[in-house]
Design a protein that fits this description.
By secondary structure, the protein is mainly beta. The protein contains four helices and twelve strands. It has a seven-stranded mixed β-barrel with strand order 1-3-4-5-10-11-12. The radius of gyration is 18 Å and the shape is globular. It has one domain: Acetoacetate decarboxylase-like, CATH 2.40.400.10.
């Protein structure tokens, strides 16, 4: 397919929706505070937001993925802080089976002509808004493998201190993508304060953002345990907000 040719789908079809990918630099110490010992900050202190509509497994799931640059055992990748999605059925089993940090959120995402709009909310707080204009097709990136890090863990029944039924392990998600369409977007990203998704306060924008509409086909995907994390060092990271990897208190936002 020509790089100037958009994807062709049936009217009303959800397959082929582009991902809205937004990247921006943030404070290195903000990323370091989120990473459990054993997962290291990447060479750059970047945040990636991916807003999407994708069939999971056979109905539309609107979602937002928040990830940060991070390395594990010398391999560069992204540490997934959270997957806010609008489909309840995928939340519990995704986290239980693979450690994928999914939680329920409300996602508005659409494109009309060149205009691109997204809004993400959770527990009544709108924590992210974007509005922009497509600048047209740009060159495709080279095919690449994206490495993503999740954490699978289960604390012991009864809540004993530093006790686990399944000790923390890194889950390596390796996905190969082939780009079929790519557009540059110029726009404004607004992060709002929220106790449930504290991106504005913990991962603030510290430079220029970049945004693009990206349509790609995953040519392969492998999800596997990659190694154990130190269970005692991980303990402060075991309690999180909702199903995300934002650090919390008793499963909710920090108090006080």
């Amino acid at each position: 397919m020509s790089e100037n040719e958009g994807p062709k789908t049936n009217p009303g079809e959800i397959i082929g929706w582009p991902f809205l990918r937004i990247d921006y630099p943030t404070d290195p110490e903000g990323i370091a505070a989120l990473l459990p010992p054993g997962i290291e900050p990447g060479a750059k202190a970047n945040v990636e937001l991916s807003i999407y509509c994708f069939p999971v497994p056979d109905e539309p799931e609107f979602g937002v993925v928040l990830s940060v640059d991070a390395d594990y055992r010398g391999t560069a990748g992204k540490y997934a802080v959270g997957y806010g999605i609008d489909q309840e059925s995928a939340v519990i089993f995704s986290r239980e089976m693979n450690g994928q940090p999914k939680y329920q959120a409300e996602i508005d995402y659409w494109r009309m002509g060149p205009r691109v709009v997204a809004k993400c909310s959770h527990q009544g707080y709108t924590f992210l808004e974007f509005e922009g204009q497509s600048q047209g097709a740009i060159a495709h990136p080279e095919p690449e493998t994206e490495n993503e890090w999740w954490v699978k863990v289960s604390r012991a029944v009864g809540g004993a201190e530093k006790a686990y039924d399944f000790a923390p392990h890194v889950v390596h998600v390796a996905t190969d993508y082939q780009t079929i369409h790519h557009e540059k977007v110029e726009g404004k990203l607004t992060l709002r304060e929220s106790p449930w998704d504290p991106i504005a306060t913990q991962l603030p924008v510290r430079g220029d953002i970049s945004a693009r509409l990206w349509t790609a086909v995953p040519t392969s995907r492998n999800i596997a345990l990659a190694g154990a994390l130190d269970p005692d060092a991980f303990w402060p990271f075991a309690d999180t907000i909702s199903g995300s990897r934002w650090r919390g208190v008793n499963g909710g936002p920090p108090k006080g």
